[in-house]
Amino acid sequence: MIRTLFKLPVFFVLLLTVLMFTVDRALPTFSYLFPCQTAVSAVLCSVGMLVVLSAGHTFRKAGTTVDPRAPEKASHLVCTGIYAYSRNPMYAGAFSCLAALVVFLGNPLNLLLLPVYVYFADKLYIIPEERALLKLFGPSFTSYKAKVRRWF
């Protein structure tokens, strides 16, 4: 059951969100406030959500799967839209939302969870997806990888 849940990036983001709130509540002495904190957080979260929604829209428009549990079911190699700038915009968008939460909560200890997200997103989702895409699309994917970088 847990293994299945971890195949969903959304579950992992929610888990890190719960951990960030836990850290903030357990160690409030580390928290800080600064002017425009909520506004900065809102901008980061809005950008992240726009990136995720744009990526999902591009996938649906291409008629291919957005299910990270089954990258081998991809019917098209999507290289347009936001995918012309990042091979992993959905993960980058989720990162931006997590960064927004770090700012919103104001506890710098939560910054330590951002590299955790990057590491596990890479190992659990991105590398398996790229293996599947290489198998499915071969030279086209290799060419795409050479032109477009991962994440940001």
Question: What report would you give on this structure?
Answer:
This protein is mostly helical and 152 residues long. The chain has a single domain (2-147), classed as Four Helix Bundle (Hemerythrin (Met), subunit A) (Up-down Bundle), CATH 1.20.120. It is built from 5 helices and no strands. The protein has helices spanning 2-6, 9-26, 37-62, 89-105, 113-147. Helix 2 runs parallel beside helix 4. It is elongated.
Keywords:
5 helices; Four Helix Bundle (Hemerythrin (Met), subunit A); mainly alpha; 152 residues
Summarize the structure.
By secondary structure, this protein is mostly helical. It is 66% helix and 0% strand. It is built from 5 helices and no strands.
Q: In the residues, how many domains can be counted?
A: 1
User: What is the mean predicted local confidence, pLDDT?
Assistant: 91
Gross morphology is elongated
Unreliable spans are: none
Number of DSSP-assigned strands: 0
> What string gives the helices and strands in order?
HHHHH
Can you tell me the CATH topology?
Four Helix Bundle (Hemerythrin (Met), subunit A)
- Helical fraction equals 55-70%
How many whole angstroms does the radius of gyration measure? 17 Å
**What is the CATH class name?**
Mainly Alpha
Set down the secondary structure blueprint.
Blueprint: H1 2-6, H2 9-26, H3 37-62, H4 89-105, H5 113-147
Helix pairs in contact: 2-4, 2-5, 3-4, 4-5
